[in-house]
Design goal:
The complex is a heterodimer of chains A (356) and B (86). With 356 residues, chain A is mainly beta. Chain A is built from two helices and 28 strands. Chain A has a single domain (2-235, 329-355), classed as YVTN repeat-like/Quinoprotein amine dehydrogenase (Methylamine Dehydrogenase, Chain H, 7 Propeller). Chain B has 86 residues and is an alpha+beta fold. The model of chain B has no long low-confidence stretch (mean pLDDT 95). Classes of the chains: A mainly beta (356), B alpha+beta (86). The A-B interface holds A 54-57, 59, 72, 77-86 and B 9-10, 40, 43-45, 47-51, 53-56, 81-82, 84-85.
């Protein structure tokens, strides 16, 4: 049985099912509220969700049962009395030790929890970084959307911020430095200053767990791979129908694997030519294969957001799931070779997490 | 003390009580005092800058108010979510 946690514009939906058949909605929480992201902590089983009420601001809540009582977490706020307010929590990620969770948000902030999401603390080194005045928001705000731990080493972390590029730490977040060499921003002038180039619009990062120095990136224009832990980047987008898209996922069993869902262009953020196609590489980006069997292939102009693609399992047991802004959820139980419709008629899907 | 009146989730988070007598010379002072008195309300009306959240409306005796609107002890302050959505 696979559990899907779907953050949507109108609440959190908990679905359960088996690959190949429609999933059942088991619970809905935060009805009417935008839920950006939710995960089930694999160690404790606790559910942790970020909710951005238009009225009452961004919060994180946690619960053991989605249909039960949710508690508001403490510490999800910027320092009081400053010039900025927290706009949104974009992502929640599990750390390398049992109790640690991270949360990333707008304006380019990282929170850390050492108690599975009940209390949180702002990472001050990133908040106080001297480069921060040069950071520029992307279309969705100054969002810290990718948090990529290093398997077995809790001190090493990579972050993706739109549009402030890649940030790396090797000392548990006490210091941060950029990792943007090789990224080419087609939307900036070639002679752009170093400060401007710092405004690179990373869309998503994923690390290959079996080869952790390898990181894949969907960029605002390009798909990239780093083989040196995010220091330098190589464009691997040749062969894709478009270099624009948001989500990216890897098969944990294969460090040469990545899946992306290209959209037509930044000016036309829908699936190209009315076809919904996931593209897979198994040679680290040297070539890409279309994976669209079972997906809509005609008159389908869908948008898949950066957190709306996830996986469960690995290797031959790899399951893939993605949701769309038009409320469909598609799944694959065979690593993308074939697809089925897991759900339909949901609110716009912001995020998807598969577990159990 | 001015009377602050809450509804919906704000009322629930303030001890499930609608009416609160609160000290303060401005709307901002009043709301800050109210949030400090009810920790479950902290950050739900005012953001970290001390500003009223964008989609919350505050009325002083029926007239729209902001953070710096003066408040007298006999005034009534209504805190309401705006009619907005999508």
């Amino acid at each position: 049985m696979t559990e899907l946690l779907l953050g949507t514009k109108k609440g959190l939906f908990v679905l359960e099912g088996e690959p190949g058949a429609e999933f059942e909605v088991k619970a809905r929480a935060f009805a009417g509220e935008p839920v950006e992201y939710a995960l089930r902590h694999p160690g404790t089983g606790r559910l942790v969700a970020s909710v951005t009420s238009a009225f009452y601001g961004p919060k994180i809540f946690y619960a053991d049962d989605a249909a039960g009582e949710w508690e508001q977490a403490d510490g999800i706020a910027l320092p009081e009395g400053g010039d900025e307010a927290l706009e949104r929590i974009w992502v929640i990620a599990q750390g390398e030790d049992e109790e640690t969770l991270y949360a990333g948000g707008d304006p380019g902030v990282l929170f850390e929890s050492r108690d599975s999401g009940a209390t949180w603390e702002l990472n001050r080194a990133l908040w106080d970084h001297p480069a921060r005045p040069h950071w520029q928001p992307g279309g969705g705000g100054l969002c810290l959307h990718s948090i990529v731990p290093w398997p077995g080493d809790p001190d090493r972390l990579a972050l993706g911020i739109s549009a402030a590029g890649v940030w790396l730490t090797e000392d548990g977040g006490r210091t941060w430095r950029q990792g943007n060499e090789g990224l080419v921003a087609g939307y900036l002038p070639e002679e752009a200053s170093e400060e401007v180039v710092a405004g690179l619009c990373v869309h998503h990062l994923e690390r290959a767990p079996q080869r952790p120095e390898r990181v894949f990136m969907q960029f605002h224009g390009g798909v990239y791979r780093s083989d040196d832990a995010g220091e330098t980047w190589t464009d691997i987008g040749a062969g894709l129908p478009s270099d624009f898209g948001f989500p990216l996922i890897v098969d944990p069993a294969d460090p040469d694997s990545a899946y992306v869902i290209p959209l037509t262009a930044d000016t036309d953020r829908v699936t190209p030519d009315g076809r919904v196609v996931v593209h897979e590489t198994r040679d680290a980006g040297a070539s890409w294969t279309e994976r669209g069997d079972g997906l809509p292939q005609q008159d389908a102009y869908l948008t898949v957001l950066r957190q709306a693609l996830d996986r469960r399992g690995e290797g031959s047991a790899l399951e893939l799931y993605f949701g769309t802004t038009t409320g469909e959820v598609f799944g694959s139980g065979d690593a993308g070779a074939s697809w089925f419709t897991a759900a339909n008629h949901l609110p716009p899907v912001y995020s998807a997490r598969a577990s159990r | 003390m001015a009377l602050v009146r809450l509804r919906g989730p704000l009322k629930q988070r303030a001890g499930d009580r609608s009416d609160h007598a609160v000290e303060g010379g401005t709307v901002g002072e009043l709301l800050g005092q109210l949030e400090r008195a009810h920790l479950a309300l902290d950050g739900w009306i005012l953001d970290e800058r001390g500003l009223i959240r964008r989609h919350i409306n505050v009325f002083v005796n029926g007239e729209g108010g902001r953070e710096d609107t003066p408040v007298s002890p006999d005034d009534r302050v209504d805190v309401l979510p705006a009619i907005s959505g999508g």
